[in-house]
């Protein structure tokens, strides 16, 4: 809002309605050394640009021996559920890009995080896909410094330290994770019988992964080696979701420390439905249930 | 193939009749179909009855394009451009017989068409000779590398046969600092810009000093110094990128005199990225020249199965884009069309579409045998009747700028320098093995890549003596020893 008025129409402008064109155009600008911040209206519509992102932006530097690159390109796009977005205004798309060497994929959880990580993404010398959880656009409020600041990419953040279980997530579901931990501590009377006393006062370490690719293996493995238990939560379908990659890495690097199987909680392996979103997304109670399973294994 | 044989035969027959007509149009003894004869007669009548002024203006049609009888030749550059869909403009002008006309300066044997003045050709001896010399370098490289691939010395090759005029003509119409986005059959642009044969061969052989790090298949060139953006295999992806580059160029101080040129084939124009790029360049008013090499085939798919409209040029006005169709085998017409296009792109801050009509004489690539889908005879007759090299050679010879001994000397010198450069490249080492992990990201290597590099280092230390591995490691710079520094003590 107001950027075009402030910086001019040649810097902030409309494009024709073409996602493959928008990303291709952004690559061309970045290739010429200009900073290009492209927007895809919804993450669900990034797929027409998949070829430009995967075959072009990601490989530009490698294939040219570093002569040309698309590093000055940042693609911003809203992502994740919004309550009623159904199939094409709800998707989490990070896992598709997690398999693409050359790209960086970043998802913030709050206004401060969004500003700091976006500025880092724009300045990073590699093409970055910056996915913004749209349900937080108006619901998440905090004091954000007006000054210039950045937060590091490829660094997870321990949001809440703990010693009994590592809970990993990113974006909007992090709030469900916090809710789940609170539910575990004082469950509603109607379901309290499912939360054994032994699980109520545990210390759960909550990690915000923040960067999906290249992700912070060190923070994650260090945490799981300490706690011995891990639950990974994301909104995308479970099969081949980002959680699969993280879980595989944990079993390989924390095998001797694990006290329970790594659990993955995500959307079901269906398209994102219109009605029934409550039962589709990883809500607090589903996460709390997974925490209990892990803690009582 | 059996089912399509009669149709191919028909195509061939009609092609020939039009071809012979076009070649001999100057003489009124054209043995062609009745309609072609009528056309020729009309043209001749017009030619005779037209005034000297009309000839000077050069707007009289001069024969038609082989394989495309509705497209007549125009020699007037200004009349050849159009940017709106109106019955008359889409047909070029009243002379166009319903199809988009083709801009041309030389006839099939390299003579200036009636009405074409030296001023319209606008070229001096040095440049014309350099053009022809560079055009001759392409087949010299093609024949040697094509055979090298057949002998298994390189993995892959794509030749430029038949398109020498389109590629070199366009390169000559540009400034060396104009930005080039290419498909893959435009290495002539690099050669025109004096890209060294050593760099050329190093790319093809994946040698240690390849500017692109030996990572891509042969003929995927790139060079910052030559403003030639690295080629990639996915078709048309460069088209919207060129639009973005044009927009960036427009906003770069000191580059006001430069444009972007973006090459692609008529097959690639069927991709969605063509539509995206054309529309974006037009709406953002970016100085980009889109240069389509319409060579009749996309691998085995003939143009007739690629589109139903009047080629690619007919799409230009739909995007509000200034457009011209040019005879791609007339290197001088291509050069002047590109020059004019560049001037229009800069003056009017808008993209221009050029459709160069040519013919892919060679196979699509070394992985293709084109005789499986078109007759060798058709290719041969095309080479004979409409050859960009012959036309340029005759043009030069008529002016006394070229002769048989220069021809022989140049061909021998080209052959020698190509063979020598190939010999040098073949002896070069491949890049260090560890370079395989580098440049995936700019900046620090991410942890996963460090781990994987260490994993390969351990494997090389363990199994490097396997005959298969040892033989391959030997080909790399440092023989794979560079990996040792990445060995991690076992956990």
Automatic annotation (TrEMBL), chain A:
Q: Which reaction does it catalyse?
A: N(6)-[(R)-lipoyl]-L-lysyl-[protein] + 3-methyl-2-oxobutanoate + H(+) = N(6)-[(R)-S(8)-2-methylpropanoyldihydrolipoyl]-L-lysyl-[protein] + CO2
Q: What is this protein called?
A: 3-methyl-2-oxobutanoate dehydrogenase (2-methylpropanoyl-transferring)
What are the residue boundaries of the Transketolase-like pyrimidine-binding domain, all occurrences included?
1-139
Quick one: signal sequence residues? none
Database matches in SUPFAM superfamilies: Thiamin diphosphate-binding fold (THDP-binding), TK C-terminal domain-like
Cofactor(s) in the UniProt record: thiamine diphosphate
Q: Which keywords appear in this protein's UniProt record, sorted alphabetically?
A: Oxidoreductase
Top-level taxon of origin: Eukaryota
Q: Name one GO biological process term.
A: response to nutrient
What enzyme class is recorded for this protein?
A: oxidoreductase
Q: Which InterPro entries match?
A: THDP-binding (IPR029061), Transketo_C/PFOR_II (IPR009014), Transketolase-like_Pyr-bd (IPR005475), Transketolase_C (IPR033248)
Under which EC number(s) is this enzyme classified?
Answer: 1.2.4.4
* Sample GO molecular function, one term: branched-chain 2-oxo acid dehydrogenase activity
Q: Does the keyword Oxidoreductase apply?
A: yes
TrEMBL record, chain B:
Keyword Transferase applies: no
Catalytic activity from the UniProt record: N(6)-[(R)-lipoyl]-L-lysyl-[protein] + 3-methyl-2-oxobutanoate + H(+) = N(6)-[(R)-S(8)-2-methylpropanoyldihydrolipoyl]-L-lysyl-[protein] + CO2
What this chain does, per the entry, is described as: The branched-chain alpha-keto dehydrogenase complex catalyzes the overall conversion of alpha-keto acids to acyl-CoA and CO(2). It contains multiple copies of three enzymatic components: branched-chain alpha-keto acid decarboxylase (E1), lipoamide acyltransferase (E2) and lipoamide dehydrogenase (E3).
Necessary cofactors: thiamine diphosphate
**In the record, what terms sit under GO molecular function?**
branched-chain 2-oxo acid dehydrogenase activity
Which biological process terms from the Gene Ontology are attached to this UniProt entry? branched-chain amino acid catabolic process
**Tagged with keyword Disulfide bond:** no
What is the name of the protein in this document?
Answer: 2-oxoisovalerate dehydrogenase subunit alpha
Q: What is its EC number?
A: 1.2.4.4
Database matches in InterPro entries? Alpha-ketoacid_DH_E1_comp, DH_E1, THDP-binding
Which keywords does the record carry? Oxidoreductase, Thiamine pyrophosphate
Q: Which protein family is named in the record?
A: Belongs to the BCKDHA family.
Give start and end of each Dehydrogenase E1 component domain: 132-432
- Which CDD domains does this chain map to? TPP_E1_PDC_ADC_BCADC
First-level EC class? oxidoreductase
Q: Where are the transmembrane segments?
A: none
